[in-house]
Amino acid sequence: MAWKRGSSGLGGQRNRSAGSSFPIVILILCSFLAPLIFFVGRGLYTSNTIDHNDSSTTSSKQGLDWRERLALQQIKPLLTKEVIDVIKASTDDLGPLSLDSFRKNNLSASWKFVGQETKAKKSAADAEVNKPSQIATADSKPKITRGKHDGPVDGDHSQFLDSPAKLARRQLRERKREKRAADLVKRDDDVTVKLENAAIERSKSVDSSVLGKYSIWRKENDNENTDSTVRLMRDQLIMARVYISIATTKKKPDLAHELQTRLKESQRALGDAGSDADLTRSAHEKMKAMGQVLSKAREQLYDCKLVTAKLRAMLQSADEQVRSLKRQSTFLSQLAAKTIPNGIHCLSMRLTIDYYLLPLEKRKFPRSENLENPDLFHYALFSDNVLAASVVVNSTIVNAKEPEKHVFHLVSDKLNFGAMNMWFLLNPPGKATIHVENVDVFKWLNSSYCPVLRQLESAAMKEYYFKASHPNTLSAGSSNLKYRNPKYLSMLNHLRFYLPQVYPKLNKILFLDDDIVVQKDLTGLWSVDLHGKVNGAVETCGQSFHRFDKYLNFSNPHIARNFDPNACGWAYGMNMFDLKEWKKRDITGIYHKWQNMNEDRVLWKLGTLPPGLITFYGLTHPLDKSWHVLGLGYNPSIDRSDIENAAVVHYNGNMKPWLELAMTKYRSYWTKYIKLDHPYMRSCKLSE
């Protein structure tokens, strides 16, 4: 009876427990959802093993914790089949999960144990006896790895082997990861190659001749040992001068004399050599002898502070010499830019003589009836350089589609008037019309009408040009030399402000400087709509360059009140002028007004561009930049494609193409329009 009561009591207790299990499970789900899922996963995994392996069913049930079985029984009615399938699918890869292992290691669900060892490995005899599995000892340290394991997790559990489908999926994922990594590496390599190629292309545009002899772009920098002898000898010369000065100060004349002797020998051996290949055979011997003397001097005279002071003094002296040479170079380059080469002067004189030997009836150009025909394409060219004017006319006609419709109006001074006529009489521009005039016969252009002529005749201007501040040395002569350019004394330079007076019957005219080359047909400019403006020109302003504040004195209230300092500048050299609008707006009167206000040169320096910017302020229509490319007379880094695509290229600057200091890389664009085989060219040696 006692046993029955106990048994029935146990049964009653279990029934009561079963009756109250549902609210307990709900509480467990709400408070400890994550640990409960781990237990469920383990229970599901075990039940799956029971279904597939009948031989191990009894052993697995004995090793299963009764709490897990109870949780499994209570959770199945609460979760749908889909949720249980998801949990089961995740546990298929991970194996039985333990809450304790997650608490200890704090691992992600995608990590699992591999190679976990027990204290004593189970043998074949243990399997026959079917002993319960032993729990792994606490000191065993599991090896954690990514993916599935190949061996058993626990000693008595069956091995969890991957199915072929899962293995194939894992291998596919690994191949995808490897492929993506390879693609990323290849993409990085492609980007690196593109950057390197871009850097190489940019380096090709660097002109090493402009950067100087000791530029980092020199070839010898590729090998640090190249020309080492030349550099060593130059260093020896510097140190020899230092020790000569110290020896003289410390009264050691014998050592100073020996150093001086070796210095002269090394200088003669070095000469003008720029590389080791230029050195003479005796240079190495002289270098060794100098080295021995310098070692001797260093032993007797070396004083760190004294040597440092001498080198600093030499450096300062060299710096002053460099500055002086720069000033001299500036002066000489500006002087060369203002002079006429002997060959061009010879050409002008020979042509002038032959012109005045011609009878009057042979001095006339044909087709004079076209000079005032407004339906033709008219050009204005004011120049005293016969060769330059011939290039402008020749290049324009060669590239013109209808040469017979082009009319050239040339104006020169009385010194070159005969030469200009004779050249174009001997070399007529095909079917085009040409006419040459002398600016000195324009009677209306006098000092009473023209402010510039009146100012040039004033005593102050003569003092500025011919007497005041004349330099006694080359280095002092570079100051403001460009503002004392003789062209500012010539009315040819200011005649551009009187175009309606010179050509009263024309409606439009294209003004050209004599330092340009035409490379395309220009008739399209006559079709450009200027939108009521007077001047069509290419703008030259960049981020902060060639704006009004670079040309005008904005500290003057007249300038500051009327103009914007950030207004964009434009270029003379190729300008389309609407002469009807010019007359309507009285452009010449505006020019006279501002020129009278600048008699003391307080608004701008001498020149025609500043008064042009003022006169045509708000009246200039910007043209496309491909019409007119500037800078071939000073800028060595103009893109070649810009030059070749330009309708007109302009050699503005000091390096004119007819001078020896012209940039060689741009000279061919100009010389190809010169008739080098002409008898006059050969006689004046201009074809060389």
Task: Summarize this entry quickly.
This protein is of the alpha/beta class and 688 residues long.
Element layout with pairings:
Blueprint: H1 2-19, H2 21-31, H3 33-52, H4 57-63, H5 66-75, H6 81-94, H7 99-105, E1 111-114, H8 124-129, E2 143-146, H9 164-204, H10 208-211, H11 228-249, H12 253-270, H13 283-301, H14 304-338, H15 342-356, E3 377-382, H16 386-398, E4 406-412, H17 417-426, E5 433-438, H18 451-456, H19 459-467, H20 499-502, E6 508-512, E7 516-518, E8 535-537, H21 557-562, E9 574-578, H22 579-585, H23 587-597, H24 609-615, E10 620-622, E11 628-629, H25 640-645, E12 648-650, H26 664-671, H27 679-683
Parallel strand pairs: 3-4, 3-6, 4-5, 8-10, 11-12
Antiparallel strand pairs: 1-2, 6-9, 7-12, 8-9
Helix pairs in contact: 3-5, 3-6, 11-12, 11-13, 11-14, 12-13, 15-17, 23-24
